[in-house]
Amino acid sequence: DIQMTQSPSSLSASVGDRVTITCRASQSINSYLNWYQQNPGKAPKLLIYTASSLQSGVPSRFSGSGSGTDFTLTISSLQPEDFATYYCQQSYTTPTFGQGTKVEIK
Amino acid sequence: EVQLLESGGGLVQPGGSLRLSCAASGFTFSSYAMTWVRQAPGKGLEWVSGISGSGDRIFYADSVKGRFTISRDNSKNTLYLQMNSLRAEDTAVYYCPKVLTPDTLLTVLSDWGQGTLVTVSS
């Protein structure tokens, strides 16, 4: 299985901050990388697919980049509703998820 | 509007069985691959199984292979997960997300239900 490693595991930030989360695959996955947001007690929500495509209805402050093994999710200006846990997931082979990054209020 | 409603969860003893259902609406069910993803309490997401729109291609995570069976009834717009020989480590919320694009197995999980909790304990 392809292992997905996110960093950091958690971070503290303030409203308005620019936040970057990274995800590394154990082997090349081309651009088959997706990002999800999960709020406590809720189902995950698709944000970004195939590394950089913004899912319909997702605010443009979210963006994704990368290819091969290294990927990033960027939130350009953190909003109160963005405090959540974020997961990357590869869809190159049998799907696997990163361990998650919890974004907390500073 | 896409709606996915999981049901069938509950408390079961180790070694027992349970069948989960996922009722789908708001899209052409038979055109989309479907998956099961689980989340143990306080833990991350784990893909469990996937099935093509027609049901002819099926995939399982190693952790459930030989114990779980995924199936679908396109006439009823319903996805199933038969879980046998359950273990404590199968305790989780089970979701049934659909893939983004019709007629593909690419596992971009665009829509999720609210999940159903399975607890395996004596």
Summarize the structure.
The complex is a heterodimer of chains A (106) and B (122). Chain A is mainly β and 106 residues long.
Which helices and strands occur, and which strands form pairs?
The complex is a heterodimer of chains A (106) and B (122).
Chain A lengths: L3 E4 L2 E4 L5 E7 L7 E6 L6 E5 L3 E2 L7 E6 L2 E6 L9 E6 L5 E2 L3 E5 L1
Parallel strand pairs in A: 2-11
Antiparallel strand pairs in A: 1-3, 3-8, 4-5, 4-9, 5-6, 7-8, 9-10, 9-11
Chain B lengths: L2 E5 L2 E3 L5 E8 L8 E6 L5 E7 L6 E3 L7 E6 L4 E6 L8 E4 L2 E2 L9 E3 L4 E5 L2
Parallel strand pairs in B: 2-12
Antiparallel strand pairs in B: 1-3, 3-8, 4-5, 4-9, 5-6, 7-8, 9-12, 10-11
Q: Major beta sheet of chain B, specifics?
A: 6 strands, mixed
Biggest beta-sheet profile of chain A: 7 strands, mixed
Strand order of the largest sheet of chain B: 2-12-9-4-5-6
Question: Would you tell me the structural class of the helices and strands of chain B?
Answer: mainly beta
Task: Tell me, briefly, the overall form of chain B.
Answer: globular
Which stretches of chain A are low in confidence, meaning pLDDT under 50 for 5 or more residues running? none
Unreliable runs of chain B, pLDDT <50, ≥5 residues? none
N-to-C CA distance of chain A:
36 Å
Distance between the termini of chain B: 40 Å
Helix coverage percent of chain B: under 10%
Question: How is the quaternary structure best described?
Answer: heterodimer
Q: Supply Rg of chain A.
A: 13 Å
Q: Shape of chain A, please?
A: globular
Supply Rg of chain B. Answer: 13 Å
Given the structure, what is the number of helices of chain A? 0
Beta strands of chain B, count:
12
Give average pLDDT of chain B, whole number: 97
Order of helices and strands of chain A: EEEEEEEEEEE
Query: Pair with the most extensive interface?
Result: A-B, 23 and 22 residues
Average predicted local confidence, pLDDT of chain A: 97
- Assess the beta-strand content of chain B as a share of residues: over 45%
